[in-house]
């Protein structure tokens, strides 16, 4: 290997960077209006600087991560001009050294972050990653990472959006996932997520902590559609079309190793989906044969075909362990003083397409009634603060319409706390929702009542009407079918508040698993699972072997 500069030059470069680390950090200014790439470059500096601090030999660091020419290009893009010029003169290589890269700096950043992440995982044995694709999912892990740290497991955070990184102190254990990085992670035991996704690497356990607390409103209809003969998906249709028709949860269900579930209704739904797709969870009366299932219901065959056969799980495990998101919430709400606050938290629009069908659009209140609900609440409950609490990633065009109406009232405010909403919930007297899972999350976490706004109540199909979500609404509050009814039902709860609190607390006590302690039990169950030990919460299921005709076919549609 021929280098244009001596090892002394590399030591000089290392010393120069080391001496100016604090100056470099102080020069980084991250603002909300920064360009997306600029935010990622700033994030890159954190990991690069940490690597320099740990590495005694800067030349060895460069060799370990990239060839010198590539590393030089990264530094030129990411560091101050003075440092750039110094390093670009110091670090170089012959054109023939290693492989010539033509990556953009963005691609280099992705590779560099992946190198650091995998290196961190391999150095510290027993690593478990927690991945949230959007910031809105971040709060759903409860205290599980901290509990795993106590059990001597190294936990790393993987985030799909950069903004959270700069809302908290710099943390070398947090990694921004760029493009397909998730599928290239190596050296960890498991990746834990709280929304079902595809793309986990082979050989690493895919653990799902269901982010819905009590019951899914539309899954019964979706399962009926999956097995129905009125909807048939052609073999050549794209995977995205399958996901749009049946949701990501059903479409990617066979890719999950371990489901961690909060309640009996969620368990029943997950078992029903799994058994429909051919899994057998030790129910002696339910011996499905996958081949027969796929022949009988062509769409089920298509679900299997639209997944990478190498990532389909030959065995799945289910654990009923509770809802970690509520551990802290229950304690907080017990101590908090209730104020005259009414929250409107509707079902969100979903840019992924999971809620485009009539199963959702007929029951999402924010589009058809959002501004009217705010106006009605603000004008009829003037002694209450009316707080609009949308999903963190709700469409701006939708929230702007509501804000336009709300700004006319002194008692209106728009809460933008995202997934960190329990400080708000803990002070609130009641919540207005529609068919959002947050209605039950609020009731189970706070022990306080909910008004379910359902203007299309008479249109709810009988199958969904018998669903646990619909059946239990009156156990935590009341149902309003129009704006006048909304005022009446809200006032009824306020006037009889002690009664409705007792009603909700009774439901909380009956339905919630391991309240206040689920994070600890889930952490212990994850350890048992990755180490192959028995845990009393586990239910195991095994699908029958598939015929060759069920192997995936490549789609002609992109």
Total beta strands: 14
Whole-number average pLDDT?
76
- Beta percentage is 5-15%
Q: Which class do the helix and strand fractions yield?
A: alpha/beta
Helical residues, percent: 40-55%
What's the story with the biggest beta sheet? 8 strands, mixed
By DSSP (H or I, 4+ residues per run), the number of helices equals 25
Poorly predicted tracts of residues: 1-7, 16-43, 55-106, 552-558
Strand order of the largest sheet: 3-2-1-4-5-6-7-14
Gross morphology: globular
Between the first and last Cα atoms, what is the distance in angstroms?
A: 45 Å
Rg value: 26 Å
Could you give a quick summary of the protein structure above?
This protein has 558 residues and is of the alpha/beta class.
Secondary structure layout:
Layout: H1 7-19, H2 21-27, H3 36-54, H4 58-65, H5 68-78, H6 81-90, H7 105-123, E1 127-132, H8 144-150, E2 154-159, E3 174-176, E4 190-193, E5 205-209, H9 219-227, H10 239-251, E6 258-261, H11 264-276, H12 290-296, H13 298-305, E7 316-320, H14 325-335, E8 341-344, H15 358-361, H16 365-368, H17 370-380, E9 385-388, H18 396-406, E10 412-414, H19 422-427, E11 430-433, H20 438-446, E12 450-453, H21 462-465, H22 468-471, E13 477-480, H23 483-495, H24 497-511, H25 518-530, E14 538-541
């Amino acid at each position: 290997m021929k280098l244009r500069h001596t090892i002394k030059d590399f030591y000089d470069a290392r010393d120069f960077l080391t001496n100016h680390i604090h100056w470099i950090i102080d020069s980084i200014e991250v603002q909300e209006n920064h360009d997306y790439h600029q935010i990622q470059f700033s994030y890159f500096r954190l990991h690069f600087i940490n690597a320099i601090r740990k590495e005694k030999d800067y030349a060895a660091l460069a060799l370990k991560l990239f060839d010198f020419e590539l590393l030089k290009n990264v530094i030129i893009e990411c560091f101050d001009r003075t440092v750039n010029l110094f390093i670009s003169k110091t670090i170089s290589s012959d054109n023939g050294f290693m492989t010539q890269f033509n990556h953009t700096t963005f691609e280099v950043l992705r590779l560099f972050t992946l190198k650091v992440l995998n290196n961190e995982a391999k150095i510290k044995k027993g690593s478990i990653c927690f991945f949230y694709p959007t910031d809105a999912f971040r709060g759903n892990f409860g205290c599980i990472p901290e509990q795993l740290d106590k059990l001597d497991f190294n936990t790393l955070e993987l985030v799909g959006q950069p903004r959270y990184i700069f809302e908290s102190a710099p943390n070398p254990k947090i990694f921004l996932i760029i493009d397909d990085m998730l599928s290239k992670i190596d050296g960890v035991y498991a990746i834990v997520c709280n929304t079902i996704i595809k793309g986990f690497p082979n050989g690493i356990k895919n653990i799902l902590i269901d982010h819905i607390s009590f019951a899914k409103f539309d899954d019964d209809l979706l399962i009926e559609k999956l097995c129905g003969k009125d909807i048939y998906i052609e073999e050549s249709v794209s995977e995205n079309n399958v996901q749009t028709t049946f949701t990501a949860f059903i479409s990617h269900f066979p890719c999950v190793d371990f489901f961690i579930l909060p309640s009996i209704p969620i368990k029943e739904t997950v078992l029903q989906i799994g058994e429909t797709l051919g899994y057998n969870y030790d129910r002696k009366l339910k011996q499905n044969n996958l081949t027969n299932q796929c022949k009988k219901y062509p769409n089920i065959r298509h679900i299997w075909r639209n997944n990478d056969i190498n990532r389909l799980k030959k065995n799945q495990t289910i654990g009923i362990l509770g809802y970690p998101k509520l551990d802290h919430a229950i304690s907080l709400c017990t101590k908090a003083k209730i104020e005259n606050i009414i929250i409107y938290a509707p079902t969100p629009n979903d840019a992924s397409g999971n809620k485009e069908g009539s199963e959702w659009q007929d029951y999402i209140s924010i589009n058809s009634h959002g501004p009217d609900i705010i106006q009605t609440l603000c004008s009829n409950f003037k002694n209450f603060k009316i707080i609009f609490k949308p999903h963190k990633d709700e469409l701006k065009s939708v929230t702007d319409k509501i804000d336009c109406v709300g700004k006319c009232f002194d008692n209106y405010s728009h809460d933008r706390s995202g997934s960190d909403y329990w400080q708000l919930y803990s002070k609130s007297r009641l919540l207005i929702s529609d068919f959002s899972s947050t209605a039950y999350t609020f009731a189970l976490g706070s022990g306080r009542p909910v008004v379910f706004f359902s203007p299309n109540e008479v249109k709810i199909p009988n199958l969904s009407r018998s669903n646990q979500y619909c059946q239990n609404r009156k156990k935590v509050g009341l149902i309003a079918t129009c704006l006048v009814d909304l005022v009446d039902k809200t006032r009824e709860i306020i006037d009889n508040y002690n009664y409705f609190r007792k009603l909700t607390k009774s439901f909380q006590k009956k339905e919630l698993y391991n309240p206040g302690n689920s994070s600890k039990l889930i952490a212990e169950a994850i350890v048992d699972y990755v180490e192959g030990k028995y845990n009393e919460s586990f239910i195991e299921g095994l699908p029958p072997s598939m015929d060759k005709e069920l192997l995936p076919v490549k789609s002609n549609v992109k």
